[in-house]
Amino acid sequence: MTDSATPSASPHWPEQRPERLIVVGVDAEQRASIVQEVAALAATMSAGLICAWVDSTQVIYGATLDGTRLITPLDPDQAASSSDAVREQVRQHLDGLLADSPVPWRLETAVGDIASGLTDVANEWDADIIAVGGRRPGFSGWMNEVIGGSIAGHLVHTQTRPVLVIPGTTKDD
User: Fold this and answer.
1) Of 13, 80, 81, 155, which residue is most buried, by most CB within 10 angstroms?
2) What is the total count of domains within the chain?
3) At 48, is the secondary structure helix, strand, or coil?
4) Which residues pair with 130 in a beta bridge?
5) 132, exposed or middle or buried, with CB in 10 Å at 0-12, 13-18, 19+?
C-alpha cells in the first residue's frame, strides 16, 4: 500500500532483503537522534531499516480495478511537485544521517494518516518493529498532539507488532 518512488536497486539496500526489519517514521525536520538511535538498534539486531515517510497532505480516495490507488491532495491548490520536493528533502536528510551507518536502508513513501501509513509499510514489509519519534518539544509539539493525537499512541493501541518510541528530547537539550 505504499507509493515507493525509491528505485528497486537502492545503493543502500542489498539484493536480498535482510531477515529482520525495522520501520521508522521519518520526515525532513526530524531530530537526527531519532533515526540514528533506530539505526544503532537495527545494527545490533542485524536488521534492515525501512525509513517510511507518510505524506499527510494527500489521501487515497479509491482504487481502480487493477489495484492502482487513486490519490488526491487535501488542498486542491497544492501542486504534486510540492510532495515530490519534500520527499527529496527527506531522502537527502536520510543520506546525511545514515552515511556512515552499516545498516541497509531504503526510503518508502505512503500517503494519508501517518499512523495508518506506517502500519501499511510495516505490513507490506512484514516488519518486526515500528519505531517513531516522541512528541516534539515545546508548544507546537503539544498543539500537534492535541489536534491530531499521538502517532505513537495510535500505533500502540492498534498494532500487533512492537512499537518503539524514541524520546523527542535528549539529555543535551
Assistant:
1) 155
2) 1
3) strand
4) 23, 163
5) buried
C-alpha cell at 84: 515530490
User: What integer pLDDT is reported at residue 121 of this predicted model?
Assistant: 96
What's the CATH code of the domain at 70?
A: 3.40.50.620
Q: Mean of the pLDDT values across residues 49-62?
A: 86
User: Phi-psi region for residue 138, left (φ > 0), alpha (ψ -120 to 50) or beta?
Assistant: left
Distance CA 77, CA 168 (A): 32
Rg (CA), the chain: 16
Query: In the beta sheet, which residues pair with residue 106?
Result: 50
| Domain membership of residue 158 as a residue range | 20-166
Q: Which amino acid appears at position 70 of this protein?
A: L
pLDDT in tens, 19-33: 999 999 999 888 889
Strand (E) or helix (H) holding 156: helix 151-158
Q: What is the pTM of this model?
A: 0.79
DSSP state of 77: T
Q: Give the pLDDT of residue 146.
A: 42
Average pLDDT, the chain: 81
Decide: 129 and 160 in contact? Cβ < 8 Å. no
